[in-house]
Design a protein that fits this description.
Layout lengths: L1 E3 L2 E7 L9 E6 L6 E2 L4 E6 L4 E5 L4 E6 L6 E2 L4 E8 L14 E2 L40 H9 L19 H14 L31 H16 L2 E9 L1 H12 L10 H15 L5 E3 L6 E3 L5 E3 L1 E3 L2 E3 L2 E2 L7 H16 L13 E5 L18 E5 L3 E6 L4 E14 L5 H16 L7
Parallel strand pairs: 14-18, 18-19
Antiparallel strand pairs: 1-2, 2-9, 3-5, 3-8, 4-7, 5-6, 6-10, 7-9, 11-21, 12-13, 14-17, 15-16, 19-21, 20-21
Length: 436
């Protein structure tokens, strides 16, 4: 900041957005000479998890702009300078706040007994490719080598350097990853072995419109393909009797004031899931990258998959095993509000132990959610309904909730998956078990 006759030149920089090595500039919404207000959006940024709006940390006149659409930035990158002073309606600059993601809001699905706060998602979001092979020394800068390590790529296998004197650039590493995803790891004899779908000119059949996918959807699609091809997944379907749970929940909400946060069935489902994970620790684990070890997690963070206009996001509720139903209700409401307001940060969507994916009140009786690797399981929920259940003497009406458990068969076998689901069902049928 420079003072000149009561005029100050303020810098707008990319703030800390979590452990994100590269951020794409989608749109720059200011130009030199513009008069902007405090907190006005100056640029739209995009990571693999969310689209974010970068607010101005000062009001005044734009003096210089240092980025353009298509650039890549990181934490601390200078975005623009703003001249603020008597001639620029000076407003004291405050520390830059983290950009506000636009990628949320979730639609909350209403039903007679709403199962979930967020809208439905059948699959979850992106993880980076793991392409670990051995190779020789290559010419690349330290930053490019770090970038390759973060992607799990052996820089020695990236032979096509497009930089000066054959130096390997980040674009070369990305091209290598794309090639590996399509063809397999060079030199390993592996590969997907699936012919590519041929390109078709659909315009010959009639009028068409082409819409570019957001970065979140593109990377999520890559991750889904990677998970589908690498994980031997099994989905186990069952139903839980939540008749008594719903009656208890109705009583609890009847005791709350008009402005109090209501208890949703999802909160009990979270608690029932956590109790089952404590009995079956393999569900709170991840397989090591070499497939030789199982990493057991001593924390219990639950991801809630949410569908947004820009793609899938999975806000994570942390230390769920240490919180009460009412505490979780507050946290879930806060996460949902942040999503609706576009304020979810990458850190809000990291570190999950297992994910819940709910179709809420939309419908359906079953589906196959895809595991959110490196997690090893995901619990799907569809619409509950009242149906006749035989009690040994007669059919009685019971409120039944369909559950869909997909798990990584390398870690969990069929018997363990069935026992795990039975514990979840028992916890939901009689929530007094959660006290044990």
């Amino acid at each position: 900041m420079t003072d000149t006759n009561k005029t100050a030149l303020f810098e707008i920089k990319v703030p800390d957005v979590g452990n994100v090595p590269s951020i794409d500039v989608v749109e720059v919404q200011i130009k030199v000479g513009d008069v902007i207000e405090l907190e006005q959006t100056v640029a739209t940024l995009e990571t693999d998890k969310a689209t974010m709006e970068l607010p101005s940390s000062s009001a005044g006149t734009v003096h210089e702009v240092f980025i353009k659409a298509g650039d890549k930035v990181t934490e601390g990158t200078l975005i623009a300078t703003v001249l603020a002073g008597d001639g620029g309606q000076s407003v004291a600059a405050k520390p830059a706040e983290a950009p506000l993601p636009v990628a949320a809001p979730p639609e909350l699905v209403a039903s007679p007994v709403s199962i979930a706060e967020p809208a439905p998602v059948a699959i979850t979001a992106a993880a980076e490719p793991t392409v670990i092979v051995s190779g020789a020394k290559s010419h690349a800068s330290p930053s490019v080598r770090l970038f390759a390590r973060e992607l799990g790529v052996d820089i020695g296998k990236v032979t096509a350097g497009s930089g000066r004197k054959g130096r390997i650039l980040k674009e070369d590493v990305k091209a290598f990853v794309k090639k590996v995803m399509a063809e397999g790891v060079p030199g390993t004899g592996g590969g997907i072995g699936i012919p590519a779908i041929p390109a078709v000119d659909f315009s010959v059949f009639g009028e068409i419109e082409t819409l570019k996918l957001s970065k979140i959807k593109r990377l999520t699609g890559q991750n889904m393909t990677r998970v589908w091809l690498n994980l031997p997944m099994v989905t186990y379907h069952d139903e839980a009797d939540i008749t008594d749970l719903e009656a208890f929940r109705t009583v609890l909400n009847g005791e709350k004031g008009k402005d109090d946060i209501k208890i949703t069935p999802l909160l009990f489902i979270i608690k029932a899931l956590v109790a089952a994970m404590q009995q079956f620790p393999n569900f709170n684990a991840s397989l090591s990258s070499d497939g030789e070890s199982l990493i057991l997690k001593k924390y219990c963070h639950i991801g809630i998959a949410v569908d947004t206009p820009n793609g899938l996001v999975v806000p994570v509720l942390r230390d769920v095993d240490k919180k009460s139903i009412n505490q979780l209700a507050v946290e879930l409401a806060e996460k949902s509000a942040k999503a609706r307001q576009g304020k979810l940060m990458p850190g809000d969507m990291q570190g999950g132990s297992i994910t819940i994916s709910s179709l809420g009140g939309i419908g359906g009786i079953a589906f196959t959610p895809i595991v959110n690797a490196p997690e090893v399981a995901i619990l799907g929920i569809t619409r509950h309904k009242m149906q006749p259940v035989w009690n040994g003497k007669e059919f009685v009406p019971r409120l039944m909730l369909p559950l869909d458990l997909t798990y990584d068969h390398r870690v969990i076998d069929g018997a363990e998956g069935a026992r795990f689901m039975n514990v979840i069902k028992q916890n939901l049928a009689d929530i007094r078990r959660l006290l044990l």
